[in-house]
Design goal:
Layout (H helix, E strand, L loop, with lengths): L19 H14 L9 H16 L2 H8 L4 H8 L3 H10 L3
Helix pairs in contact: 2-3, 3-4
């Protein structure tokens, strides 16, 4: 993919990507198709799961911040419930 292309382009020319409602419908259908309760999963849980896995494997909070699109590290720290001291300790260990 080129940086300006969308993973799921819209069907209409004036819309460059699918709507959040369409995306939610896709997620619901995927979850239901594999026999899980759709009310327990959503678009946000998918987003959070991926970055949580990245954080657990690498401890790289800065990378997670970039993936989430947060401009401030404090937002990422609050998102994960990480203590600020832990976040600073992790950031000092990992070179970016």
């Amino acid at each position: 993919m080129v940086g300006s292309e969308y993973l799921w382009p819209g069907r209409f020319h004036e819309r460059l990507h699918i709507s959040t409602r369409q995306y939610a419908r896709i997620v619901r259908d995927w979850v239901t198709s594999i026999g899980l309760d759709a009310s327990a999963y959503g678009t946000h849980s998918m987003r959070r799961t991926k970055v949580t896995q990245n954080y657990k494997k690498t401890g790289n909070l800065r990378a997670v911040q970039l993936l989430l699109g947060h401009t401030k590290m404090d937002s990422t720290v609050r998102y994960f419930g990480v203590e600020l001291e832990d976040a600073h300790a992790i950031a000092e260990v990992i070179e970016i």
